[in-house]
Design brief:
With 119 residues, this protein is an all-alpha fold. The protein is 76% helix and 0% strand. The radius of gyration is 15 Å and the shape is elongated.
Length: 119
């Protein structure tokens, strides 16, 4: 069985953080604080059928994911943003589950001490 690649492009993430591992760690900490809020807001927006809220929250989440170079999750958030823009909430519900799995992978990765100091 092949090991799964990390959910972040660490080289890119470090570059985005001005080659400062401490800044990158801070970005990761901020992400961990905000990701539950984003997923709750996305679920709530889908539950009430608010396509514009889906679009806005997905857009915000996409920016946070881009700052960590979380490529797969960023693409998934962009897709949710697009589905919200088009009002395709049934499709967005299905895609949210995929995004939540990837967000959990990212959260697990960020919980490992020293993740921002690649060797």
């Amino acid at each position: 069985m092949t090991a799964q690649p990390p959910p972040l492009d660490l080289d890119r993430a470090l570059t985005l953080a001005a080659d400062d591992p401490e800044l990158l760690a801070d970005l990761g900490d901020e992400f961990l604080l905000r990701v539950p809020e984003h997923t709750t807001e996305l679920r709530r927006a889908l539950d009430v059928g608010d396509a514009e809220a889906v679009r806005l929250v997905a857009h915000s989440l996409k920016g946070a994911l881009a700052s960590l170079a979380a490529v797969t999750a960023c693409q998934q958030a962009a897709e949710l943003e697009h589905l919200g823009r088009e009002g395709r909430l049934d499709a967005a519900r299905g895609r949210l589950a995929d995004l939540e799995r990837e967000l959990q992978r990212i959260s697990d990765f960020l919980a490992v001490p020293g993740w921002s100091h690649p060797v």
